[in-house]
Amino acid sequence: MEGKKDSTVKAAQQTVQKNDVKREQTQAVDVRSSNIEAAISVANVVKTSLGPRGLDKLIIRPRGDVLISNDGATILKELEATHPCAKMMVDMSKAQDVEAGDGTTSTVVVAGTLLKSVQGLLKRGIHPSSIVDAFLLSKAKALEVLTEMSEKIDLANNELLIEAAQTSLSSKVVSSSSKMLAPLAVQAVKCLVENSEQTNVDLNFIKMVKSVGGTVDDTELVNGLALGQKASKMAGGPSRISNAKIALIQFQLSPPKTDMESNVVITDYVMMDRVLKEEREYLLNLCKKIAKAGCNVLLIQKSILRDAVTDTSLHFLAKMKIMVVRDVERNDIEFICKALGCLPIASIDAFNATKFGTADRVEEIANADGKIVKFTGVKTTTKSTSIILRGATKTLVDEADRSMHDALCVVRCLVKSNYIVRGGGAPEMEVSVQLRKWAQTLEGVASVCARAFGEALEVIPEMLALNAGLDPVTICTQLRKLHYDGKKLAGIDVRKGCIVENSTITVPLLVLSAMIQHATETVLMILRIDDILQTR
Q: From the candidates 74, 104, 107, 522, which is the catalytic residue?
């Protein structure tokens, strides 16, 4: 009797353990499925924005501001994602934007398609760890194929650089002006390249100044500095200075104030006149010291404690023929100092000519929205440049700013890695075909996963064709056949609406390699999650 009871207890325990294991497996499946669906929903948001014929998104911010863009990083940045895995997709687009500056939409779309492939593999009973191992091998093989089909370029060849910049701009709202903006982007970056061995460019030395008025074609490059602030002419000060000696001050040209808990009691008009007289003398002494040092252009940092400059100070400076630009933002101080070769001056005691910057001319230029100040002929060893972006509306100028940043990043990618690949879906289809062939040499689960990885990359030519109004099935089938026949450069020409055997579209290798790396790493990170824990 006791033996029967023991066997019954053991059987019950085993049943409970099996049920617990099944419950844990079911919970892991549910969590993983929820995570994948959340990430795929983010990819579906930007899928229709891919390519030159991609559509734009109109984003309404909480305050009522309107944003029109088809840039993946911009759209996802404005997206208020709440699910953790959806936030991971947003972070991935930011990482792609930082690393390459372009290809953010492609990265998110590829990651979403890879997750769909993962769903199919999981339904076939393949363990997540096996998928992770196979995808890592497939990623390495894909990068190898991209490297083999890449071409090394010479940075002295401006035509190839301009083509790459035009490819980036072709999918933007300002695509109609890409032939004018692309050379400006190349010229701006090459101004910062000191020698052929340089492997990186700091885009912080390129300042974007947005000016509403005119058209995008009126955008210009300034070999020097341009500021969005206007010259202060309230007291009749000058608006143009030749042989400028420029000083940037961080102290205030206004009467000092008492502490918050102190009060000054004035009982009669004599005391009031005395206070006003002392204020004028205090400001006049400051202005005399500035003029005595030889400064004729004064930049004043914006102050939050008290007025940075008063009408009385402006009157004195105007009489001394000193041009004043006020309300310089704190974030621009470092760039201005590097661009002009000056140093910020924190007090009047440290005001001397050794901290000045020099320029051949400083002048104020009027536009439809206001005025800007342009510094030309800057005499400094630090190379910098400014781009004055123009457009009919603020929304268009903002989009031109984002588009120009992407074009600058593409040219920077070519400086970092002097290799390009042909675009139009050619690299993705070639990698897909090579992975299919490579998968046939593998055994077991790895072969199935590698094939699924390659098929997922075909979403790029598929969406390029779909967004261009073409038949994606026919286009992808014909393109796949050409790549199986050994024509690696065959791609889609969405302008002509057909397939060309030798695509003329150029894309930096760094953009595509970063796309595959970021998409794969994010997918595997989501795949490894089997539970979500909340802490307090």
A: 104
What's the CA angle centered on 116, arms 89 and 423, to 5 degrees? 70
As a whole number of Å, the end-to-end CA separation of the chain is 51
Between 457 and 11, whose confidence is greater? 457
Angle ∠(143,149,151) on CA atoms, nearest 5 = 115
Count, residues in the chain: 536
Residue reference for tokens 């617990």: 20
| Contact of 156 with 416, CB cutoff 8 Å | no
Options 48, 74, 105, 312, the catalytic residue: 105
Band (pLDDT 50/70/90 cuts) for residue 414 is: confident
On the CB side of 142, CA atoms within 13 Å amount to 30
Q: Please give the sequence-ordered ranges of beta strands (E in DSSP) within 186-279, or none if there are none.
A: 206-212, 220-222, 224-227, 240-249
Q: What is the pLDDT of residues 129-178, one digit of tens each?
A: 999 999 999 999 999 999 998 888 888 888 888 888 888 888 787 888 88
Residues sharing a CB contact under 8 Å with residue 228, sequence separation 6 or more, in sequence order: 209, 210, 211, 372
Q: Using 50, 70 and 90 to split pLDDT, how confident is the model at 369?
A: low
Q: What is the pLDDT of residue 453?
A: 93
At 261, is the pLDDT very low, low, confident or very high (cuts 50, 70, 90)?
low
**311 is an active site residue:** no
Question: For the stretch 45-55, what's the b/e string if a residue is b when 16 or more beta carbons lie within 10 angstroms of its beta carbon?
Answer: bbbbbbbbbbe
pTM here is 0.80
In which band, very low, low, confident or very high, does the pLDDT at 264 lie, cut at 50, 70 and 90?
Answer: confident
406, 506, 520, 522: which is the annotated catalytic residue? Answer: 406
Separation of alpha carbons 214 and 365, rounded Å: 14
Helix (H, G, I), strand (E, B) or coil at 238: coil
- Between strands 57-60 and 419-422, the pairing is unpaired
406 in catalytic set: yes
Residues 437-455 pLDDT 10s: 999 998 889 999 999 999 9
Is residue 310 part of the annotated active site? The answer reads no
Q: Are 472 and 462 in contact (CB under 8 A)?
A: yes
Q: Token match 């206004």: residue?
A: 254
Task: Note if 104 is an active site residue.
Answer: yes
Encoded tokens for 244: 């400028």
Tokens read off for 204: 């912080």
